[in-house]
Design goal:
The protein is of the alpha/beta class. It has one domain: Alpha-Beta Barrel (TIM Barrel). The chain binds NADP nicotinamide-adenine-dinucleotide phosphate. The site of NADP nicotinamide-adenine-dinucleotide phosphate has 25 residues, from helix 7 and strand 10.
Length: 301
């Protein structure tokens, strides 16, 4: 697996990360297998969130809890990963990034994950009520306490990210937008370019559009003709590169000039292994622009 730098740090991470959104229902043995496979194949950044598991049998905190059990079985595992989690979503409010709430959420995540530090703590979604200065105070105190090494944001616009950064002395090390061949707005809304400006790493969520780009089933995706154009292009590129659809979709996200680390979410061991090989696929510039044009429905100007 190719490696990249984690923001402005000298920490190296795999160019593909592993995500735990769909992980909460796993048995302990299955969960252990998935995390070990991801690490063995170079996916060293493991992304989770306190909300993962909400609405399922395990409930709020379920995915962190399960990952914490995996970590507690083998003390050597913790140092092999860059552990990223998130807080700030709390249904039905739905968001809370107040100082008191985030500090409490961090302590709860630490205890569920059975660790005394988080490598990357991210505000999960922008809270439109709490002032950025207060959110920044929470992130600053998290870092100063030693419980958190680095901080980042998820689903923030460029303007929101800048506003938060203006109140912070530490850099926002990561941005986490949804980004895939089927969700290309980060290429034009400025978020990928802002990451390049600040050298933040971009953790791209749902890089297979929640599996749609692998199955070819649009599901509730509204623009069926766009979906058809993208799938036809992915299928052609998969044949050209002797690769799977998912490998082409992942390679697309990594071709952009920003430092993009797609977070895969499969719960299938063979698919974790297959995804890792996507860093070896060398899409040409023409291949990349074919997928951009398929998304836009018009040729590049
Ligand atoms: N910040 C945010 O707001 C946010 C939101 C959503 C997600 N995330 C992060 O992004 C991560 C990934 O999200 P995601 O799970 O939606 O990612 P994804 O990789 O786009 O989709 C994974 C889904 O695709 C399915 N799939 C079907 N065929 C597949 C194939 N051939 N290869 C691989 N997957 C296939 C998987 O099913 P199988 O398990 O059966 O393979 C799984 O349900 C999450 O775990 C989380 O860390 C963040």
């Amino acid at each position: 697996m190719k490696q990249t730098t984690f923001g402005t740090t000298d920490i190296k991470i795999g160019q593909i990360a592993y995500g735990c959104w769909r992980f909460a229902g796993s048995s302990l043995e299955e969960a252990d297998d998935k995390i070990r496979t991801a690490l063995d194949y170079g996916m060293t950044l493991i992304d989770t969130a306190d909300i993962y598991g909400f609405g399922e049998a395990s409930g709020f905190g379920g995915a962190e809890e399960r990952l914490g059990e995996v970590l507690s079985m083998d003390k050597a595992l913790r140092d092999k990963m860059v552990l990223a989690t998130k807080g700030g979503i709390i249904p039905p409010r739905p968001y809370n990034s107040s100082y008191d709430y985030l500090m409490e959420a961090l302590n709860n995540s630490l205890s569920r994950l059975r660790t005394d530090y988080i490598d990357l703590y991210q505000i999960h979604r922008p809270d439109l009520i709490v002032p950025f200065a207060e959110q920044a105070r929470a992130l600053t105190d998290m870092v100063q306490s030693g419980k958190v090494r680095h901080v980042g944001v998820s689903n923030f616009t460029v303007a929101q990210t800048r506003a938060l950064q203006a109140h912070l002395d530490v850099p926002l090390m990561s941005l986490q937008p949804e980004f895939s061949a089927l969700e290309q707005s980060p290429m034009t809304d400025g978020i990928l370019d802002y990451a390049s400006e600040t050298r933040a790493v971009v953790l791209a969520w749902s890089p297979l559009a929640s599996g749609r780009l692998a199955t070819g089933e649009a599901g509730d995706y509204a623009d069926k003709s766009r979906f058809k154009r993208i799938m036809e292009t992915i299928d052609r590129l998969a044949a050209d590169h002797d690769a799977s659809r998912s490998q082409i979709a992942l390679a697309f996200t990594m071709k952009h000039q920003a430092n993009i680390v797609p977070i895969i979410g499969t719960q299938n061991i063979n698919r974790i292994v297959e995804s890792a090989a996507a860093t070896d696929i060398n899409l040409s510039a023409r291949d990349f622009y074919d997928l951009v044009e398929a998304y836009r429905g018009v040729g590049m100007p």
